[in-house]
Amino acid sequence: MKIVVLVKQVPDTGDERRLDPASGRLDRSAGTVVLDEINERALEAALSYKDSHKDTSVTVLSMGPEGANGALRTCLAMGADAAVHVVDDGLAGADLVRTSVVLAAAVTRLDFDLVIAGNESTDGRGGVVPAMVAAHLGVPMLGSLSSVDIDASQVSGEQGTEYGSASLRASLPAIISVTEGFAEGRFPSFKGIMTAKKKPLTKVPLSELGIDPAAFDQVGRSSVLSTQERPARVAGTKIIDAGEAGVELAEFLASRRLI
User: Fold this and answer.
1) Do 186 and 78 contact (CB within 8 A), yes or no?
2) How many helices (H) and strands (E) does the chain have?
3) CB of 142 closer than 8 Å to CB of 131
4) pLDDT tens digits for 46-57?
5) How many CB atoms lie within 10 A of CB 90?
């Protein structure tokens, strides 16, 4: 079994996030960057299967700037066998469409039976990249699974719905995404940290994915036209009940079109 896990390095959710006013993009230098927690759960799904199927190979794949190799090293320390880092100056500011095109090309290059991803990243929160990659690859997609069962020919799992849960199943090759209902990622052991230094981490530019940079520039992209700093918080309005508090509250809400 060959499993590819899509991972991403994101700003720590404990830090304040901000946009770069000049570019309109997320300022990734404003705080600590970490492996996205939902990707840890996706990797755990792969490693749990590998624990009982020793012939399984687990490769983590990420697209991002040079610094994103820190997240990949974390994955290798957790137990992944190899890592691939798609890094290219031409990918700066890539949106969901461009990201899915590149990831699909990279997955094809790796040869796979199953791709596992988180259902949505904690920075962009688009929640559509796994499905878009599946569409590019022409393989079935099982999204937002809270449990998963993998065997040699198919994958199945439970998906929470508004009215309960649904049991899903697809033949391999396939792509699945997991939710926060899945098991947390394991902690890297000391042995894992040491052996991670010897595991392969391959950097891949766009040119090696069979993507023509000139043609890639024609792929539709979203762009930020303007940005504005969030206004500073101001003191709230206090209403002291002297017999007219109800009227004052109603007027306050009405002035803001809240009633």
Assistant:
1) yes
2) 7, 11
3) no
4) 999 999 999 999
5) 15
